[in-house]
Amino acid sequence: MTPSKRFQGNAAELEYLLLTPWQRFKLWLFGQIYIGHKQQSGWTKSQPHYLRRCGKHGFYITHPHGWHHDLYGCEQCRRVALEALKRRTL
Ligand SMILES: [Zn+2]
After folding, report:
1. pTM of the predicted structure, to 2 decimals
2. How far is the CA of 65 from the centre of ligand 1 (A)?
């Protein structure tokens, strides 16, 4: 593959490209789709990962966090909200 044709997007966009049409339909219908168990460095075991779509920032990957295993929303939205909170503009 030539450098000019190399994929330029992020990991979430790549995951989307790998989805089948049926999986893309389920993502559209349910707002998220399971993309497999993955283990990140420092983890004792793998966790289920999900692909979601943010209306502002596009696709992102999330996994269960904390004791309640909540799935976090879009990290960029969270960052914007935190910055606004720091500036006290909320
Ligand atoms: Zn977002």
Report:
1. 0.77
2. 18
